Here is the input.
Amino acid sequence: MTNEEPSAEGVPADAMRRLSELAPGRAGSIFTSDLSVNEFLLVREAGFKPIGLVLGSSIYHVGIQLGRWGKNQELDTLSQAMYHARELAMTRMEAEAATLGADGIVGVRLTVEAREFGKDVAEFIAIGTAVKGDAAPPGGGTWRNNKGQPFTSDLSGQDFWTLIRAGYAPLGMVMGTCVYHIAHQRLGAVMSNMGRNVEIEQFTQALYDARELAMARMQAEAEALHAEGVVGVQLNAHNHRWGGHTTEFFSIGTAVRPLRPDHEIERPTMVLSLDG
Here is the structure.
């Protein structure tokens, strides 16, 4: 990613016309939002005005992965496909927000939906509410992140309000993914474990490694944003359509920075509130 505005490539003409009608200051313009009433009021109390609903979409065909199925291994082609498809959807959502002159996007939802165009085709969708700050952050500067892009956050309206009131600001949603194949047990191992309570170390190590790869990649994205930490982390497993021994581990959270010098701490990027 560069310091330039997200490209509007891939954003349909109808969406650009809709966004032009939502532009702040345009006579008769009204905002749209998927925030609940409580979330809307809390976002307003936090000092941000909703501008409009923004979204990004990518229908993606996942390619073929070759490998030795008798061993634990990451499926690099599939990991790259799942990451790139989500990144396309996120970038297009950010481009819509930038077109509106937004400072950020709150309440972001990032989903994957299978489509009937083929068993290896899925639609990746990012949607949220673009907002603009009523004033500059404490101490000056901008609400946008260090890449000059609108911040993104998947925090609820309540958590967003708490974050701002506590003196922190979101930088962006950060994510990591790992598609991993877990080798089948050999027949001898299956037979020797029958009727026994015993850890299957091969499976334990495979799942541990896959989760660690996803978490490390999410943390690397946070470090690139110069974040102090990552909040609201979710670590989920998705099987998609690859079969019982192949699983995607997907880690996502909101990278944050302090708004006041007294909140700055000297330590590496940390991960907070791990769920899953």
